[in-house]
Amino acid sequence: MKLTAFVFGLGLLLSGACLAVEKTTLRIGVQVTGTVAWELAAMQADPAFAAHSFQLEIHPVATAEAGKVALQSGAVDMMVSDWIWVSKLRATGADFTFYPYSTAAGGLVVPEKSTIQSIKDLPKKRLGIAGGELDKNWLFLQALAAKENIKLNASVEKVFAAPPLINEQLKQGRVDAVLTYWHFAVSLESEGYRQIIDGKAMLKGLGIEEQVPMIGYVFKDSWANGHKQALSDFFKASKQARDGLCTLEPAWQKIIPLLKTDNVATQGKLRQRYCEGNVTQWGDKEQQAAGRIYSLLRTLSNNQLTGDADSLAPGTFWSLP
């Protein structure tokens, strides 16, 4: 009798132990040079991480496009991308959806002693653009210039390339200004270059007052519906990790090796801009503004960026349960 009770009790203990370690694995595609890597590292360094209902499986990807391929092939469960792409896919029948990550935006940067003081000074200049003709900030910049009756696409000499190469082109004097992603703009600013305008200011100039996050976590609706608790817990942990990086010096110091720079000024500026990108509001007002941005980009890109749909596809934005 005693032996039976012992075996039964041991079985309960082992069963409880198995239940305790059974967690949902979240496979995330992460660009090693991106800020998502900072946040996930901070999350995993938190002593409370072991108590979460999920565990992370990090899949490094070389580029944003490589991440999209990994997501669409099922190699990862989620990655960070933009909601324009999500809406375009949903319009074709895919069930991807979006949850906001950051409002950080790229900007227009010039040398400190440049004669360029505003968009009006760009005509006849050489402009380096990170990305291609359909880069969102490039489309916004053209629309803003058009309000001043400036046909920017026809009046500047354009150089399209990857952000690191664009930065080098500016440093070597081969271009007069660059329109680049925010962390590459920060790198230049910390070396004395000036930012003329950023993506948020461009949108404001185009009548969009709300702070709309352009990038966020992208995943399948069908997958999310089967992992609601783990996903909800992950987003809460993500916010806590970001808050910690922005307010707790020890947390920030731990991820500094991931910044890939020993320049203290650059480190400080990266932290500032990263924290300024914190999503503090995401509701009907911001989502309606996203719809207006969609319409704007649809017109500016002649449907090339958005696809043919007249408006954002239903279900583009995912809500926490």
Q: Into how many domains do the coordinates divide?
A: 2
**Tally of alpha and pi helices:** 14
Got a strand count?
10
CATH topology of the largest domain: D-Maltodextrin-Binding Protein, domain 2
The pLDDT mean sits at 92
The whole-angstrom Rg is 23 Å
Give the ordered list of helices and strands: HEHEHEHEEEHHEHEHEHEHHHHH
Instruction: Report helical residue fraction.
Output: 40-55%
CATH homologous superfamily of the largest domain - what is it? Periplasmic binding protein-like II
Q: Which regions have little confidence, pLDDT < 50, spanning 5+ residues?
A: 1-19
Q: What is the spatial order of strands in the main beta sheet? A: 2-1-3-10-4
CATH top level class name of the largest domain: Alpha Beta
Protein name: ABC transporter substrate-binding protein
Pfam families: NMT1
Organism: Crenothrix polyspora
Keywords: Signal
Describe the structure.
The chain has 321 residues and is α/β, with parallel strands linked by helices. The chain has 2 domains: 23-103 and 212-261 and 268-300, 3-Layer(aba) Sandwich (D-Maltodextrin-Binding Protein, domain 2); 107-205, D-Maltodextrin-Binding Protein, domain 2 (3-Layer(aba) Sandwich), CATH 3.40.190.270. Helices cover 47% and strands 18% of the residues. The protein contains 14 helices and 10 strands. The chain has a 5-stranded mixed sheet. α2 links the parallel β1 (24-31) and β2 (54-61). α2 (35-45) packs across α12 and α5 runs parallel beside α9 (199-205). The longest helix has 20 residues, at 2-21. Residues 1-19 have low confidence and may be disordered.
